[in-house]
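Checked the freezer inventory, then went back to the computational side. Two predictions to log before the end of the day. The first one is the construct we discussed on Monday; recording sequence and tokens without edits.
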Amino acid sequence: MTPATLLASTTPVLLHFYKEGCAASRLMSRSLQQLNAEEDLRYQLLKVNYTEEEAFAKAFEVSDAPETLLVMNGAVVYRQFGIVKADVLQEQIDIHLNS
């Protein structure tokens, strides 16, 4: 998926940038696994290796990892840098999906 196709998507996308070997990225992956375990996902989860996909990260103004964005209707509507618990992240996602 390219940044342009992601922005053109009608399905909301939770875009997560991570780094291999990064402790914070590993912890954030656990939160994402908890979210992904839900049966009723109303968005697509896309994980992007920040180190391997720097151009993709720059297209979304991501300067380091872990960073998680919610992209809807061609725009970034939520941005979280660092670690966040699954329930807090889900609450933020719900706010935007229900608005």
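The second is the one RB wanted added to the comparison set:
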Amino acid sequence: MDCSSRDAERMCRLIGGACRKYRQPKNKQTDSAKRRSRMRVRRRKGKGARARSRRERRARPCPGRRDAGRRGSFRDQNGKDEPMSGFKKSQARAPARRDHYREVTDRIVAALEQGVAPWRRPWNPDKAAGPLSPINATTGRRYRGINVLLLGMSRFSFASGDPRFCSYKQAKDRGWQVRAGEKGATIYFYKSLCVEDRDAPADGEEHTRNIPLLRSFTVFNGSQIDGIPEFVPPTIEEAPWRRFEAADIILRNSGAVVRIGGDQAFYSPSTDHIQLPMERAFSSPEAYAAVQMHELTHFSGAKNRLNRDLSGRFGSAKYAFEELVADLSSCMINTELGLPTDIENHASYLSFWIERLKSDKREIFRAAAAAQKAADYCLAFHPDFAESRSDSDEQDASDSDAPLVEAA
């Protein structure tokens, strides 16, 4: 079929190019197929371009600066370019570090706001298995300082008749097992970290200094542990400082001047003497002995002894802080001697303690440390207790695997 006219040529194209002149070779695509192929390529390129554009927008260091460099920069409020390195780090939320001082203080303040000093025993020691200071179940050492206060606040402490505590690992190493679902008590120790002292003189010998870091540990009471041997409280022969006359022995050996009479109990720094009412004015001999130990802790703070600040007058901040130290210390002493700890104090002390602790989260740690020193000073006047402490100190000194110091 030959196409000589223009109409015939157009018709030939419409019917598919039947003539030889306009017939397409079989190995070549038609115009429509080429157009479809080009359209598919454009669509693919368009998707890729849009994807690349999104990636570039995400990778751009600063959307507000179109001419930012390769490393990236941003313009601060003063119009200066600042490097973007570390920008994401500053924006990321770092995990909040636990504030152990604040946690302890908040617990104690919450108890004080309810009108209760949490370091006092709310039970009758005669009905418990034995009012002993908390001890470690594996080493036998007494806990000290703030840990005495915290373990005394535990619902298992003493009321369970078992003053022993230990960590999960210590129990596991002994073949014991903490029961599932049991909740422990938190105690604190100081770990000494040795760092370079940049402020040290160049010609000096010491170029390092130690920084105390407060570490927390969880311990469990003996009543929460399966497999632990049954606790047997020490007998009077094993702990003779728990005899009835122990307070009199301590007071007599201290050398304190004690005057009897009047209706008040106090220690006078100016005359360095303890004033006590007559014994029959107290509800029981145990209550009388407890007040003796309370006033003896004030006696320990004199300048020629432990040198605490006793210059505060009644109602002042210094006076109330000294009462906090004496209250904590007498509780430690009376717990060790088996005496009552619920000595009545002026109501204004509680409000001051709350205000002071809220304003200074380390105050309770300082008070507990001073109270522990006062308790050690007073208890050392009992010869049997002093001997027992010297034996335990020798054992502690022989231990080389104890890098932590209790938060006294």
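For RB: The CA atoms of residues 182 and 224 lie 7 Å apart. Residues 31-59 form the longest helix (29 residues). Let me know if you want it refolded.
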